[in-house]
Amino acid sequence: MAKRDYYEVLKLAKAASKEEIKKSYRRLAKELHPDRNKASNAEEQFKEVQEAYEILSDESKRKAYDQYGHAATQGFGGRSAYGTGAGGAEGFGDFGDLNDIFSSFFGQGFGGFGRREASSTSNRRGSDIEATLRIDFDEAVFGKYKTISYRRKILCSHCKGSGAEKPSDVETCSTCNGSGQVVRIQQTFLGSIQTAAMCDRCEGTGKLTKHKCHICQGAGRSDTDEDFKIKIPPGIPDGVTLRFRDQGNAGKLGGAYGDLYLTIDVEAHPTLERRGDDIYTELDIAVTTAVLGDEIKVDSVKGPIEMKIPAGTQPGKIFRLAEKGGPRFRGKGNGDQYVQVNIKIPEKVSRKQRELWENLDEIKSEKPGIFG
Known about the structure:
3-stranded mixed sheet, 23% helix
């Protein structure tokens, strides 16, 4: 029987991204797994899905397959999901993804395929903290040091995160012998499968506390109000999120600190607008200024600056003021400023002004081209 196209097997388009390939594989593998799907051809389809994923999840294999089809996969093996090689489970390709699938059937920590939940402080890492800092327009343009106040959990000052009143109060868990996991053997269609689940008695720490810390009551952490000084870099755009390592919450029982994620919210300026590293503004000018030209003042990030309006300036004309913008974000030099001029037409005119405009109109009629 001829092999089906691997993209067809995974129900994907040929332009599918790596993430789409993984997502489709995991969905189909769970759907077709023989322990869940009792259809007569479920096992065969499961193998087919695994083989397709083995090729398409690897960039070099996928490139060769796209160019030469199934003939190109012979050099890569293209094994069944149950094939074994020197490594004991070579045909599975991506142990991490398969572990996720099997753990949904057998529990966490799939010992038989190389991944095991370690009992370490990294698994007890504290949570991250997300916050928003509102700054004004000038602070975003030129940068500034700011002190923020927020509440977080830190390691207990007395027990240093252990949760015990004194170091001798910490002992090894007798249930898991300090590993933090309880190993079980289960019989499956694959044979004997070793699984490892978190020890319920010590909650995966591998340690037990005889007498709890009188300060934190065994939690190993305490709440505190933190004042943290940060540097706002010049030119920072609105909506950027800054990450500060280890400024989040402390983990349980001595676990590592999480991070602080601070999103910058920049207040709007009444006359200036930032677009990337450049500054934009609009300016209303009188008709006479547009016709005759003049030197006028324009708002900028550094205060009012002089700008020349040449005679005969048309409505909507945009002028570029080189390097009159703010400092470039993570770069050198300054951005530019762009000024769009709008011709301000009087809504009401006095009798004298009306006479002057009529005289101009007569002159224009007599000598076309003088005023446009």
